[in-house]
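Changelog-linked ticket: zinc ion example.
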Amino acid sequence: MTNPLLATWDTPFDLPPYDAIRDEDFSPAVAAALDDGRAAIKAITDQAEAPTFANTIEALERADETLGRVLGAFYAVAGADATPAREDLMREFSPKLAAYGSEITMNADLFARIETLWQARDTLELTEEQARVLMLTRRGFVRAGAQLEGAARSRLGEIKERLASLGTQFTQNLLADERAWSMPLAEADLEGLPDFVKATARAAGAERGQDGPVVTLSRSLIVPFLQFSPRRDLRQKAFAAWVARGANGGKTDNRAVAAEILKLREERAALLGYDSFAAYKLETEMAETPDAVRNLLMAVWEPARAMAEADAEVLTAMMRADGINGDLEPWDWRYYAEKRRKAEHDLDEAELKPFLQLDRMIEAAFSCAHRLFGIEARPVDVPLYHPDCRAWEITRNGEHLALFIGDYFARASKRSGAWCSAMRSQQKLAGNIRPVVINVCNFAKPEAGQPALLSYDDARTLFHEFGHALHQMLSDVTYESISGTSVARDFVELPSQLYEHWLEVPEVLAEFATLADTGAPMPADMLDRLLKAKNFDQGFATVEYVASALVDLAFHEGTAPEDVMARQAEVLADIGLPHAITMRHASPHFAHVFSGDGYSSGYYSYMWSEVMDADAFEAFEDVGDAFDPATAQALHDHVLSKGGSVDAKALYTRFRGRLPGVEALLKGRGLTAA
Ligand SMILES: [Zn+2]
């Protein structure tokens, strides 16, 4: 019997035939797909003809067609419906795919053809998109070390290998420290904690085989504990353990690991010819340079710090009223901020939830996209990988645009968080290929017969992921390597974070936030309180985040520090971190930066995207209409349909007439008054 992953798929919308695919089929299919890929690369380098864009770059674009199909089918289930067998497959595939990737980038004959084209680029009469694909392809090879020879080449290989193992060690040390600590709570210690925190603490105790409830270092337990526990002594003890993760001495201490990682990154950047690792990392980003990143962060820092200092005074006064003297400390902030939030913006989640039905929020996301971009969504019944999955055919003017899959409910086999992925990406090189896009979330599944209800955060997540989905579904480019969300990391969150703004448009909530039983809309004062509570404690949130981002940047510029804690302290003293606030992630547990390369010199990118989404939504506000057709058209034409076919700065400038400024973000976070 042929492997169903490798056969022609005779299915609606050319979906993977999940009813026929067994887990045992994935491994041989990946092996066969890698063989296909290798054969395609060999065909490129073996041909006698001189390199052309078509016989080299386009052929390379198409080399992994089989692999793309097989992995598209696999990764959809590996993240959203994992089984031990599928987890084993993940572990099996990841080194194989890494080795295949470096086989390609280190293929000297292949790189020689690309380099020939690159040198002749001005004579090739390429379209704007083709020129971009050529530049990106060559840059990817160069950054992977394709131009290095001899000792430098082998040293780069050693560095990459050592960095991979140090990243794993960093993660494992952190996990070990998190698992090693817990603080038992007596029944009396639970006083003042809301039921959900008590329940979480009891479940954590049971999970650790303890008799009673415990506090652990998991963010979902320690943060609410710090928010709600009136016991200052216990808050201090828990906080001390939390900020010491990765810096407890002994075998799990991450300080030396972090220093070695920074040193190797510096060497890697130097081997590749860059001034610093930050310069190497930022080359592919919209920000482009360390200075641009610092300027953004500092523009936000001062107003945020001013607001945090003003808030610290309010919180200190509340603490005095409790009869406590001395300074407001980091373990006091969340507790008094929560009290203040309750006093100023009382908003009861339980009261809000019945108005936020999943089905109505899905309708709201579709309705906004219809008004903005003219798309229609029609539910379709197609076989998928799990019975909770739902599918819609997305059309525009009666023409098929995409298949959209929503997999919304939490289950044990799904990893946590929410994400958007494409089982198939848009492209035109292999015919008019339209995408298959999935939004995966972890919303609580209702009991049978009950409507699924969301928290406000859930509803925002739904809009966020649908924004990513629109970026994929509206994509209109020729080459898959630059289609949809294949853009710079500090640009990819623009469509998603921007889309969240439409949930906050009062007429949208007024229409779609309705009670399941009576259909009554959300009362005006609840809507009002909801929108106002958004900016609460933004001074604190911005300060703890920006402090971490500035330390990340400083680590990767200039000479790598021997002592990461000393360098961190220097940066924090320079910027004047308020006494009662600490970094969101201190170096010994800054997994974004040290567990892998992903967010190193890149932690700023969350805020970079936020600057853009605030500025972009202001384009609608400026004309007084959240659904202004001309602005929506410009957003579609210059951002959502373009993928990475044009440099991000140029895309944004074409949409907005200029680059983004920080003013809209400061206003959005309520920081302009400070
Ligand atoms: Zn996102």
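Closing comment: Example verified and attached. The mean pLDDT is 94. Residues 464, 468, 493, 496 surround zinc ion (CB under 6 Å).
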